[in-house]
Amino acid sequence: MNFDELMEKGNQLRKENKYEEALGAYQSALEIDSKRPEAWNMKASTLGLLNKTDEAIECFDKSLEINMENDETWFLKGMTLFAVNRFNEANACFDRAINSNPQNPTYWKYKGMVLSQLNQNTDALKCLDNALELNPDDESIIIFRNTVLQDIEKEE
User: Fold this and answer.
1) 10-residue stretch averages of pLDDT, the chain, 156 residues long
2) CB 104 within 8 A of CB 134
């Protein structure tokens, strides 16, 4: 199998929740071409699904060695850290994603979410406003924004 076929096989196995087998396919793809960030990212996110956070972060870091400006990699690394309550590290990753692609509302939404977890609700609200400006129809942003507003009112 070539690189693309192995990646497709891994993606299909992931869809079937066969994460260990998917890891094998991604690893085989990386053995063919270890300079492809998408393979490192898929391996990393699959490791994250298996609660192997440290290994996932190592794979994201390998992806970033290839391309430090890959906003998707920074975002995925941030999501992985966010999922295990490593909020300060996630926040730094979301910053890098936003710096690379400030027009992505999802990045702003998760930046707002992590700031809320860090009890920085005023800054969280600004991020959520940015997300809403970019994607005014996203109900999840509207709902979370209202939660942050309530938290700010309780602080006052």
Assistant:
1) 96 98 98 96 96 97 96 97 96 98 98 97 97 96 95 87
2) yes
In CATH terms, the fold of domain 1-67 is 1.25.40
**Comparing C-alpha atoms, which of 48, 46, 99 is closest to residue 71?**
99
Start and end residues for every CATH 1.25.40.10 domain found in the chain: 1-67, 73-156
Reported CATH class of domain 73-156: mainly alpha
Q: Kindly report each contact of residues 72-80 with a partner whose C-beta sits within 8 Å and lies 24 or more positions away, as own/partner.
A: 72/41, 72/97, 73/37, 73/40, 73/41, 74/100, 75/104, 75/106, 75/107, 75/110, 76/41, 76/44, 76/45, 77/44, 78/110, 78/114, 79/48, 79/110, 80/44, 80/45, 80/48, 80/53, 80/56
**pTM for the complete prediction?**
0.92
